[in-house]
């Protein structure tokens, strides 16, 4: 028997940063500050990520590029790995991501790359609770996703290894 199945997900779209609630604005502001400290001399594409931990602390990261390009790392992984390193086992409530280019205006919400989705999914799967994701460019609307799993349907996780 063949079944057709549709995989879809809901997001919340805010017209602009100032439509976010206070907690959302605080988290996204931290990502913007992190973005402004990005080290991206090769792409001129600055990304900031902020991770809201279960104890209320916000951990920030930004992209760190390298003259040997593949040695660099995206903002999201810098932030989430730092969160994992500082607070092993602590739940992560949300991540905010923002991007800005020195060459053009990023007015669409910045989408995390596939590697970062996979990296974040590891923590979400382990904690068994969803991580909310806020996405923003430099200007324009903000998208809120309810979980990382929504952004990585049919994802790979440790259950396959058992
Ligand atoms: N980048 C991120 O930091 N996060 C993403 O999800 C996409 C891309 C960085 C990597 C590189 O430093 C620059 O943006 C251009 O790809």
From TrEMBL:
It catalyses: cytidine + H2O + H(+) = uridine + NH4(+). Keywords: Hydrolase, Metal-binding, Zinc. GO terms for cellular component: cytosol. PROSITE patterns: CYT_DCMP_DEAMINASES_1, CYT_DCMP_DEAMINASES_2. SUPFAM superfamilies: Cytidine deaminase-like (SSF53927). It is an enzyme of class 3 (hydrolase). One of its GO terms (biological process) is nucleobase-containing small molecule metabolic process. Its cofactor is Zn(2+). The keyword Isomerase does not apply. The keyword Hydrolase applies. Residues 22-159 form the CMP/dCMP-type deaminase domain. Belongs to the cytidine and deoxycytidylate deaminase family. PANTHER family: CYTIDINE DEAMINASE. This is cytidine deaminase. It comes from marine sediment metagenome.
